[in-house]
Amino acid sequence: MPDTVFAFAFAPEVAASNASLRAYLHGLPGVDAVGVQARAADLATRSIKTTAKATAIDLAIRMVDLTTLEGADTRGKVRALSAKAAHPDPADPSAPHVAAVCVYPDLVAVAVDALAGTGVGVASVATAFPSGRAPLEAKLADTRRAVADGAAEIDMVIDRGAFLAGDYRKVYDEIVAVREACGAAHLKVILETGELATYDNVRRASWLAIHAGADFIKTSTGKIAPAATLPVTLIMLEAVRDHYAATGRRVGVKPAGGIRTTKDAIKNLVLVNEVADPAWLDPEYFRLGASSVLNDLLMQRTKLATGSYPGPDYYTLD
Questions:
Q1: Residues carrying an active site annotation
Q2: What highest taxon heads this organism's lineage (predicted)?
Q3: Is 51 left (phi over 0), alpha (psi -120 to 50) or beta?
Q4: Is residue 255 part of a domain?
C-alpha cells in the first residue's frame, strides 16, 4: 500500500510565538515506531541487479558529498580531496564526479579554486559545527564568510539543546536568519537525529526546518552515533514528500554518517524511490554524506565493468 500523505497547513502566524509553533509541531501525527522500522527493513531487502545496479552506482557517486571536517585539515588535503571529487577514478574517465566537497569555512576558497570548471560544488559547514552552540551573530558571520569565499551550499546545525527544551521559536528564527545570510547559496539544515531521542522529534525537527526555509534537511554531522539510519531517513523523506504535496516546493534530504558500502547506498536510493518519488533521485534533491562509501562504489563499478575487483589499495584513502 502507498504511504498516507498528510497536508499540514502552516500559516506565517504559526511562528509568531513559541506556544503556537509548539502547538503546530505537537499536532503532527505521531510516528508508529514499529511500523516505520518494519517498513524500512522491508525496503532494505529489495535487490537491484545488472544494468539497473550499474545505473544506481553511478547515481550514488553523483550524490556523494566528499567531506573533510577534521582539526588537522590542511590546504593540501583539501586540494587532494577536490582532485578525487572531480575524477574519482583517474583510470576511467567515464566515472562521474561527485556532487560536492564539504569543508570548514576557512578552507572554502581553497576548494573553490581547486574545483573551478569541474562541475563539483563547494559546501561548507557553518553555525558552530558540530555543536551549534554559539551566539547567533557568530553563526551568521561564519555563514557569510563561507558564502563570500564561494560556497554554493551551507550545512548548518540546529541548536539541539533549544529544540529538546521546547524552544522551537529560537531554532526556527535561527534557521530563518541563516537562510537569509546564505543569499543564493543553498541551505542544508542538520538535525543531528542521534541526539533527538525519538522518531516524533525527528518528524517535528524536519517540519520545523522545512518551514523555516531549508533547501535540504540532513540527518547528522557524522560526529554523533547513531547517524543516518534507514527509519530516520524514511521519516524525513515522508516530511519532504508531504510538504511538496501541500505546497509544490521540493526540499532535499541528505542522510550522513554510517553509509559505508554500495549496498547501504542502494538501500537509500530504494527508500527515496518508494517513499518519496523518483523525482528525488537526483543530486539536486538527495545527497549521501558518506565519504567512506565512494571507494566501495568505485570498486563495485569496476567489478561490473571488468568482472574482477581492483586491489584494496587501488583508490586513495581519504
A1: 155, 218, 254
A2: Bacteria
A3: alpha
A4: yes
